[in-house]
Write a structure and sequence with these properties.
By secondary structure, the protein is of the alpha/beta class. Helices cover 36% and strands 18% of the residues. It has 16 helices and 17 strands. The strands form 4 sheets. Strands 6-5-1-2-4-3-17 form a 7-stranded mixed sheet. A 5-stranded parallel sheet has the order 7-8-9-10-11. Helix 6 runs antiparallel to helix 7 and helix 8 packs across helix 15.
């Protein structure tokens, strides 16, 4: 099974053509061996053909698929860099070439590693932990040489060595203290509109789950408080607990921008350990009010603008085979950084927790009970088994990790009861066209 690491080692003596010029191509071209080997890009979009596109800090010519034969020789490799890679592979097989090139799919190379391999650890632990740690350093306004040294120190710690057992450091988990939300969004990743009787988890249960979780890990870089956290009545207690917990370095609260935190919560948000992430769904008046309050308190926050969501689909059973489930799970962002606990159980992803609460599915491997009678060693073993898994039953009820993805508008209300502001800075279609033109040149 050829992995991305194998591919990067072998490509330096090859001539590489990338088929696809979108976000996946941009990701692939961040790897220097790929960037150095690429001679051109291919795209079915006639608007891009004949132009040069900037990816990975370089401009590359874009050709039509019909021009491929003129660029092929026995040393050419084609890398499919698109979520539509299966259709592209079929398209290429239907074309006649005098020289048959090797064809690889970037999405499949990315997940070809096995759970016990060093590559699995580096991709799903080390890399993700350092990405999360960079956000923490940003929260503390640490930059320059100090930032570089702290990242190097953190990497050395996570890698372990010198005959000592590697520490169990996880990048991020999510806790879900409530199923209440003041919005009812189409395509909600947390499935909140499906809860007929939304409720809060008792703060005692949450603290107990925290204690058990932290007994089994050496460090968790960041913790996300999901749902709509400003609706949870005991948010103050959660934040006080996490601020005092040395095993977690950063805390992120995700809010829909329409609610203000309580005064006692607002005071805690001033701690640099906390980041407030604001989703901009177009309710500009309400969001402006929240931003004004946060700015007055000098609270660290980010606004996610021009959001789109990946359509995860409903909770009906998909009937996928084992290999499809493996790809979906390893290709899914939630499987890496949105594991977490909910009401006494630790789950492989947030979707699993919500579906179990709804009674939509059951699994023998996607979650386990956080039992007070379990020793730290037993909890650690259960957590490791979950974090080192390669598949999940939840992927048979979700489309997040499948390709190609379906993109939907973020924050659209099911009942239309929360209207977007009537004004905006620039029309979204015009904005997308401006972005496209900025990345291409004749």
């Amino acid at each position: 099974m050829r992995t991305l690491r194998d591919f990067l080692k072998e490509i330096n003596e090859k001539k590489l053509i990338c088929f696809g010029t979108g976000l996946m191509a941009e990701e692939a071209l961040r790897y220097e061996p790929i960037r150095q080997a690429v001679v051109c890009l291919v795209d079915n979009d006639v608007r891009k053909q004949g132009c040069e596109i900037e990816l990975g800090g370089q401009f590359f010519p874009v050709i039509a698929p019909t021009e491929l034969p003129a660029h092929l020789d026995e040393n050419t490799v084609i890398l499919l860099t698109s979520g539509h890679y299966r259709a592209m592979e079929k398209q290429l097989k239907g074309m006649e070439f005098s020289v048959q090139p090797e064809i690889y799919a970037f999405p499949e190379l990315k997940v070809a590693y096995s759970a016990g391999s060093e590559e699995f650890f580096e991709e799903r632990f080390l890399k993700e932990c350092l990405k999360e740690y960079e956000v923490v350093l940003e929260q503390y306004h640490i930059s320059g040489q100090e930032r570089t040294e702290l990242l190097q120190k953190k990497e050395a710690y996570i890698r372990g060595g010198n005959g000592v057992e590697r520490p169990f450091v996880v990048p991020r988990i999510m806790i879900m203290p409530t199923t209440r939300c003041n919005m009812r969004c189409k395509g909600c990743s947390s499935l909140l509109p499906l809860f007929d009787k939304p409720c809060d988890i008792e703060i005692g249960q949450i603290v107990q789950d925290f204690e058990l979780f932290f007994s089994g890990v050496d460090e968790c870089i960041r913790i996300t408080v999901g749902g709509e956290p400003f609706l949870y009545p005991n948010l103050k207690e959660i934040l006080e607990y996490l601020l005092a917990q040395k095993k977690v370095l950063g805390i992120m609260l995700i809010t829909n921008s329409t609610l203000l935190p309580k005064p006692e919560v607002l005071e805690l948000l001033t701690n640099p350990k906390i980041l407030v992430e604001i989703s901009d769904y177009g309710h500009l008046e309400k969001m402006s009010r929240l931003i004004q309050v946060l700015e007055e308190k000098d609270i660290f926050f980010k606004v996610l603008t021009d959001q789109t969501w990946t359509d995860m689909g409903g909770v009906e059973y998909r009937g996928r085979e084992a290999q499809e489930l493996r790809f979906s799970y390893l290709n899914c962002d939630q499987s890496r950084v949105i594991k977490g606990f909910h009401n006494g159980k630790f789950h492989t992803c947030a979707r699993s927790a919500r579906m179990l609460s709804l009674g939509a599915y059951e699994s023998e491997r996607d979650y386990f009970d956080l039992k007070p009678e379990d020793t730290p060693e037993e909890i650690r073993d259960k957590l490791k088994e979950m974090f080192y898994s390669e598949s999940a039953d939840a992927c048979n009820y979700c489309d997040l990790g499948t390709l190609p993805t379906k993109v939907i508008e973020a924050g659209v209300q099911m009942q239309g009861n929360l209207r977007k502001s009537k004004y905006t800075i620039v029309d979204r279609q015009e904005y997308e066209e401006l972005k496209r033109l900025a990345k291409t040149r004749e």
